[in-house]
Automatic annotation (TrEMBL):
UniProt xrefs under CDD domains: WHTH_GntR
Alphabetized InterPro entries for the sequence: Bact_HTH_transcr_reg (IPR050679), Chorismate_lyase_/UTRA_dom_sf (IPR028978), Tscrpt_reg_HTH_GntR (IPR000524), UTRA (IPR011663), WH-like_DNA-bd_sf (IPR036388), WH_DNA-bd_sf (IPR036390)
Protein's organism: Alkalicoccus urumqiensis
GO BP: any one term: negative regulation of DNA-templated transcription
Highest taxon in the source lineage: Bacteria
One GO MF term attached to the UniProt entry: DNA binding
Record-annotated HTH gntR-type domain positions: 8-76
Name of the molecule in the record: Phosphonate metabolism transcriptional regulator PhnF
A Pfam family recorded for this sequence: GntR
Alphabetic keyword roster: DNA-binding, Transcription, Transcription regulation
Amino acid sequence: MIDKHSSIPIYYQLAEQIKGRIHRGELAPGDVLPSERDFAEQYDISRMTVRQAITSLVNEGLLYRRKGTGTFVSEPKIEQAVGGLTSFTEDMRSRGLEPASRMLHFGEVPAPGDVALILGIAEGDNVIEMRRIRLADNVPMALETTWLHPSVVHGLTEKEAESSLYSYLEETLGLIIGRAEQALEASLVMPEEADILGVEKGAPVLSIERRTYLADDRPLEVVRSKYRADRYRFMMDLQRAK
Ligand code: GLP
């Protein structure tokens, strides 16, 4: 099954074999991977080569290592379409996952300079700031800090914000959310965020900033989120310009 005379590196061939087993369901999420020695004996290759194959799959997020116990098959990533202006709650429900939030902070704070500028208020004026851990089926997926324009959002309580902000804005306040600008970039988790997200220190995350406006163009929110790169994959539908 491994061709030692091929120009394709052996570690790569092994990584493809393991991927095949995962895709065919022979190795399911949460399963422990056979040991390096088992692979080395089975394919008659060196343990170094096996380690290289496994490391490449860990880096791709298909496998994860747990200290002292072994290497395991990851859950498939959540595929998130980028394009629709949806809420976390909607995104999770549409996948049959149960959304929840854990509130780390909720209250009025003086607006940070860059946030004030985007929201169109004076620096130091009060904004509503909330920091939520977003969970799906009780697993932390993202850490999200939101600043809301104080005169647009009335009466929001911690309890409501813990369920869905967008449904409160639309259903209770009758606001019409119009559009958002969103930027996505790669970064590494900050040390104090790693435990909260349940990832290793220095793990990759996807940083997203969203600036959302109401249909009448009033600024509504600035949101900075860190999504777990091991759980998320962002999908885009591209059309070739005519
Ligand atoms: C996503 C977006 C945020 C938005 C949130 C609203 O997480 N990245 O910008 O504030 O959805 O979600 P919910 O209505 O579940 O509170």
